[in-house]
């Protein structure tokens, strides 16, 4: 319930305010400057509507002076929005007060529709600003790849669990290695839920300093700590009607674990520096790349919080355990890249798919996405060819000058790839012998240092990797 303080000696004002907001808002009215000071010093309000005659307006006052005058309203109401009530002939003075920090002004006689518009605009602008602060650095999100399209049985099971839990409001705990796609799964749950029209807000707990995470999640009131120059809505408040995704939940401090546990139990929270309870109306999805149950057994994570989060657990398998999904993921990434760039690449060379299937993928789906994007930017043809991928991937550990033959390719293509493989292995052995010296290596094979540089760039070799006399691989 919003709380409004009206300070005006115009009897019609109180009637208009009550008509506009009763019974959903509590309205206190005063008719003198003394009563105004007494009310704002003893009670907390969301909006203070004050007649300009109650302010100390002087011709020689600056905006800074008016700003100091407004501090008396904010001392006990740091989050309050001030609306100046003024006769039309004093609008110029009201504008100075607005410049000093008041939210807006209204002219007499007070109009119900104008009042509602100004009040709602002030609230919405505050909410939008808080949302912009959160989303400003967030990267654009492409279309979600439907998990039901995946070929692996492991991901089809994940898809079934997502469909089961999406329609509920149950808290979900996603677990899996870094890069397996926990954020994508969280978005998928949100998009299939009844909350899909609400916001989806992701919070990377490990990336927020411990001193700021409470403010990030719960918000803070103006003046609640040094640097809190305005009220800020937290992610739990911004996520009302939607979903809040808490990634890397294992990184939060023991003190924050206690506060989060209380919020999940009571379904209410307070802004930092605030006294009012705010109802938690966002669904919580948490994720961790470490086993929270093991951490709780070791005493490194609260057991009671683990069980509060672990209402509906979903384990996401690493990419190396679902290699049959790799071609579909590659197609998906290519579709997204074709939309973002003025470029059309429609497929992948068969030898590349063979290499991708053999690779261990320590970085999981995220690593695959990054490698495909790099190859996309380097590729000059209409399919991704081996030349656009890191040679280390094509060779594989311990392969040396050996070359995996693919008889589905034309003989000319096999010859070219084999020649590249031999040439790169030769250069590596040469640079190893000469400890990375480009001048000595170029002299040994009778070419210029510039030509040697070009050969190394072509094969992705760096002289620094050979300084010790041993190849980096």
TrEMBL record:
4-aspartylphosphate modifications at: 51
MF terms in GO: ATP binding; DNA binding
SMART domains hit by this protein: AAA
The keyword Ribonucleoprotein belongs to this UniProt entry's keyword annotation: no
PANTHER family reported in the protein's UniProt record: SIGMA FACTOR (PTHR32071:SF122), TRANSCRIPTIONAL REGULATORY PROTEIN (PTHR32071)
Domain Response regulatory: 3-123
Stated name of the protein: DNA-binding transcriptional response regulator, NtrC family, contains REC, AAA-type ATPase, and a Fis-type DNA-binding domains
GO biological process: phosphorelay signal transduction system; regulation of DNA-templated transcription
Transmembrane segments: none
InterPro entries: AAA+_ATPase, AAA_lid_NorR, CheY-like_superfamily, Homeodomain-like_sf, HTH_Fis, P-loop_NTPase, Sig_transdc_resp-reg_receiver, Sigma_54_int
